[in-house]
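Hi C.,

You asked whether I'd gotten around to modeling the 395-residue construct. I have! Everything is below, sequence then structure, no commentary in between.
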Amino acid sequence: MPANILNLPAYTVISLAESDHDYQISAEAKQAVSMCPHCQSDRLVGFGRREQMVRDLPMHGKRVKLYIDTRRYRCQTCAKTFYETLPGVDDRRLMTTRLTAWMGKLAIKRTFASIADKVGCTESTSRSVFSDYVNDLEKTIRFETPKWMGIDEIHLIRPRALITNIQSNTIVELLKDRNIETMIHYLSNLNGKENIQYVAMDMWEPYRDACLVVLPQAKIVIDKFHVVKMANEAMEKVRKGLRDRLTLKEKRGLMHDRYVLLKRERDLTNKDSLLLSDWLKNYAELGLAYRLKEDFFKIYDCSSPNEAQGSYLDWKQRVTPEVADAFRELIRAWDNWAPWILEYFNHPIINTYMESLNNVIRVMNRRDRGYSFEALRAKILFAKGAQKRKHQAQV
């Protein structure tokens, strides 16, 4: 029998059996107990044995079961009996500590069910191991407070606030909701919150109001993406409003060609330009909406807040009654959020990471459907988070 088959130096391997899916390895601890854990006496006598099945890391694609011959002792001083403590075995379940560490790390990117199948335990045990792994990690790891913070919304069962580090493109925290009480509590308890310089966010009042209260030194910047997106949405409203006047063939054509309406004019190919020209020529409202959309995007070419506000006011004057309803929400948003929208032109920071991150999170949410928020939060944070060991972190 190879002495190192387990690579667990505290054990002696006695025998090995193999089946289609498992290795069954009999072993015993090398070091006998020398002291009573109750009274520290060394007057011990053997008092029987029992075999315990302990799961270990898979080998060669097969599950591993260790059958450990565990010794029982009786203390002649205090008369208490006890079993020897098995070295390298988790004190919460009959698994080696290296197996639980491996399962915990793997569960960040794999489903609990797939890990349970690989190890030979129940899915609930896999979940429990991951929960303990995360709790242990959070005792030794903190997430860096960013100087440039992003706050955005993702949908995991319901809307949640996602905190990101814009400079390093990493996740800092995923909050249970996006209410102002939750935001204030989180921001108030951040280490180094006074060093936050900028916060990029969408137009959700609790984000803004919490930052104004807790982070008065930070500049609030409304993410450009959330503003220009509303211009595209306004044009889409105009397009959809035309459908009642179109034949079935025209409806299908407009749906098929909608991508050219959403593209920036500067990015159109020759073929795109021809398609667009036909639609805009035949439908005046669509042409007006497209031009307003394009001109709104150009506001973000301005180099100062004053220039941008002037460009916006000129643009607003060109919104005619035919398309006013479609652009009403965009106009209301700018008018209500102008100070923070215009801050972008002083500090052009954007949370570009969010779009790709949302795609990753959506895949994770589908794959791990039915998981609790706590489990999903841990998987997302430890897969994508900006982490530092606490003992290395600067206070």
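If it helps when you're writing up: Residues 386-395 have pLDDT under 50 and may be disordered.

Thanks,
B.
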